[in-house]
């Protein structure tokens, strides 16, 4: 019986890990913004209340912060501020990506 438990435990743990990753992907949206400077792909994880994106070959993860309007994500240095279909990215209060918009869906 112990041998079965020893063999089954890693399989069960692998299944739990896979399930956790699957649930994580289900709660993550990918947003494709078109900005004045360059395109911006943002992965929005609603469960963790954070966004992931790459700027200047640097991967960034920002947590949701306080916002009077829209959604604001920050790590204290970088800020992604989004409202409705638009977004702006700041680095130390300096705009680095401006006029970012989600493309309108074609009908």
TrEMBL record:
<dbReference type="Pfam" id="PF09864">
    <property type="entry name" value="MliC"/>
</dbReference>
<keyword id="KW-0472">Membrane</keyword>
<dbReference type="InterPro" id="IPR036328">
    <property type="entry name" value="MliC_sf"/>
</dbReference>
<keyword id="KW-0449">Lipoprotein</keyword>
<keyword id="KW-0564">Palmitate</keyword>
<dbReference type="InterPro" id="IPR018660">
    <property type="entry name" value="MliC"/>
</dbReference>
<feature type="domain" description="C-type lysozyme inhibitor">
    <location>
        <begin position="33"/>
        <end position="94"/>
    </location>
</feature>
<protein>
    <submittedName>
        <fullName>Lysozyme inhibitor</fullName>
    </submittedName>
</protein>
<keyword id="KW-0732">Signal</keyword>
């Amino acid at each position: 019986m112990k041998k079965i438990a020893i063999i089954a435990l890693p399989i069960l743990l692998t299944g739990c890990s896979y399930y956790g990753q699957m649930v994580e992907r289900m709660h993550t949206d990918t947003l494709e913004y078109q900005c004045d400077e360059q395109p911006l792909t943002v992965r929005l994880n609603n469960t963790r209340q954070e966004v992931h994106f790459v700027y200047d070959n640097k991967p960034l993860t920002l947590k949701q912060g306080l916002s009077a309007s829209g959604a604001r994500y920050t790590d204290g240095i970088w800020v992604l501020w989004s409202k409705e279909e638009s977004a702006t990215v700041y680095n130390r209060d300096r705009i680095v990506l401006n006029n970012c918009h989600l493309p309108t869906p074609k009908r």
